Structure formats: structure tokens, C-alpha cells
Amino acid sequence: MFDRYEAGEQAILVHINFTQDEEWEDLSEFEMLVSSAGVNALHVVTGSRKTPLPKYYVGEGKAQEIADAVRTVDADIIIFNHALSPAQERNLEQLCQCRVIDRTGLILDIFAQRARTHEGKLQVELAQLRHISTRLIRGWTHLERQKGGIGLRGPGETQLETDRRLLRERIKTILRRLDKVAKQRDQGRRARNRAEIPTVSLVGYTNAGKSTLFNRITDAGVYAADQLFATLDPTLRKIEVADVGAAILADTVGFIRHLPHDLVAAFKATLKETQEADLLLHVVDASDDRFRENIEAVETVLDEIDAGDVPVLLVMNKIDNLDNAQPRIERDEEGLPQRVWVSAMEGQGIDLLFQALTERLAGTMIKHSLRLPPEMIGRLRSKFYQMGCIVQEEYESDGCLMIDIRLPMAEWSRLQKRESTSLDDYIVA
What we know:
By secondary structure, this protein is α/β, with parallel strands linked by helices. The chain has helices at residues 27-36, 60-73, 86-96, 103-114, 118-132, 159-194, 210-218, 261-266, 268-275, 291-304, 350-362, 374-387, 409-418; strands at residues 9-18, 39-49, 77-80, 99-101, 199-204, 235-241, 245-251, 279-285, 312-317, 328-331, 337-341, 365-372, 390-395, 401-408.
């Protein structure tokens, strides 16, 4: 049912520049996507237009040029670097007598190849089913016929309607399974919140070096390669940050321009690690000429998944590919780290990255010295011990307890709300 590539499949690539579109796709990135899918590009058809045409997306002449190229090089498939409508795909297939895949289908197939965990496979299948549900009629001549014959009379359901119904049922099954996965992740997240362990999530454009950096920091041995979407399944590891303690570092899937919406929706459970992180490490390939556009593309996806308000620390990676670039920390007017220049491959600037992590995460921690009267000691002292925030304590001659605590600001605020009396009245320093 799915358009699944086979090793060594021969393809014609189509890339059109639209003069009225400022968010044009990058041809070199498209070729990397095709290579990541394991497809051999025989020929690239390029062109320019003001706007797409409804029938073939390209003009009649360009469509015929693509059809001629297919016959000349004996290609198996045509891959567009653009999102095509189902009708445009069908029209092109009829003209070229060859399968046609758009950019969304290509990315979905790469994700299908990369998925390793049960959750990842379910998420990719969900995205593929949603994508293919609008393209069921393609290439099928029997779909419009009514069912007939012994044992099949009665429903009056066409084959197309049957396929759509089966798709809907499969989608519902996957959603139920993913809901269980989401609940399991929520349980783990709540346990970390109770233990006051901050979460740091790696985000960034695909192939920016997130997994290499993740391995450098954690020695996790996560698969890392110079290809798009090398990492698909999320990985969590515990790290130690000075003056903060234990923290959870999450490696996530890379983003890309015009990431298919079906894919974003399918990966909601995975991307929840990003939504609820205390800090995002936005890894950027500083050696990429389009790194500013890549940053904007990632920020767009973060807004789509409701993670646009999470604090961000930019990690300018791959400085080993730049001339005279040195590891350093860039700060804002208040002295807070905003950018760290590192090379994950060479290990340059990792100490500076941990320094910046300490400053950014410790900023959410508060220290208080409290003087608790005897009637408050029992209840509050036990709560402080449960939270693991006591630095030191000492009883005074009048029975009061001097206690120093250190805890996240959010936990202090929650504790304040739960208490009937204001804890600020007991603060002495």
C-alpha cells in the first residue's frame, strides 16, 4: 500500500524555483534527502515559474520534458521537491507512466526506514496512513465498482469505500496504542518532576550534529551519521551539571523546512519532551550558509508544537569547519548565556557548554534561610526532606529551627500556594 523504495531505485528529481515564493526549497538539501532514502538520482529537472499550475504543478512543456527524461534514462520513480496534490500526482503518473512521489512522501519514507522502536514505527505508520488516505484511488481501476457475487451482496460498498473504512479503523487502533505510550511517558515525566530533575532537550535542524553532541556529553553511543534524519527515536540520558545536580538530556528528531503536518501530529507524544523541557539546546550547524534560515525553520516547528515559550540556549556547532572560529560564550545585556560556540566532533567548547548550562539552569533555583517556630517545624521540615532541598539546619535555644533550603523556583511557588500561611514571613535571608 505504501510507496516504499528499494535499494538502488532509479529516480528523476524535479526542483522548481518560484519567483514569488520567498521560502524556496534548497536543491542540495533535496539531493541529500534523496540520498538518505537510498535512491539513485539519474537526472535532475529544474525550472522557474511564478506560481504552480493546478494540473501538473509544472507547465505542460515541463511535464512533457519530465516524461521524456523518464523514458530516456528508464527511471523507476519521479520525486518532486514540493508538496503535490493527489490530483497532480495522478495526472503526472498518467502522463509519465511512472510513480510520482512528492517531498512529503519522501520524508515519510525516510522516517519509515529510520524507525527502530515500537513507538517510532507506530508514529510513522500513522503519518503514512493519513497521507495515503487522500491518494487511495491512484493506480486502482477497480475501486469504483460495487462489490458483488455470492456473499458480497448487500452493503453496496465500493472497494474504495472499503479501503477508506479499513484505513480509519487502523488509524483508530494506532491512536489507542500511542495514547498508552503517551501515558507511560507522562508517568516518567511526573516522576522526574517529583524528583526535581530538570530536563534539557536537544532540538535543531536535521544533520546539525545533535546526536554527535549527545554522544559527546553522555557517552550514549547513539547512532550519528552525516545524513538527514539519522536520529528518529528519542533517547534520554542523565547528566550531572555543576551547582544543579542531575539533569535529563533528551535527543530528539531533527526538524526540516515544511515538515509534513501529519508527521508533526503523529510525533506529538515524542515531542512532548520538547514541550515540557526546562531548557532547549538549539543545535545549529554554524558552517551551513543557510543557518539563519534553518534557525527560523526550527522556531516555526517549535511554535507549531507549542514549545515556542521554552527558554532556549543556541549551540553553534561545527566550528571546526570554520576558519579561525574559537569556542566561546555569547551573553545578553544581563550577562545570561545566549550562544555557545562548540565542535561536538572535536570536543571543543564542551566545558563552556556545561558552564552555560549551569548558569541557565541554576537561574531557576532559589536559596532561602528560614527561621521556623516550633509549631511549624514538624510539617514543613518533613516536606523539605521529601523535596530533598535542605542544605543545612540548626536548632536555636528558644526551640526555633534555622534551616537553609535550595530548590527550583516553581516548586517554591507551588509550596507557597499549598500552605495556609505565607512562607515569606519566615525568611531571614
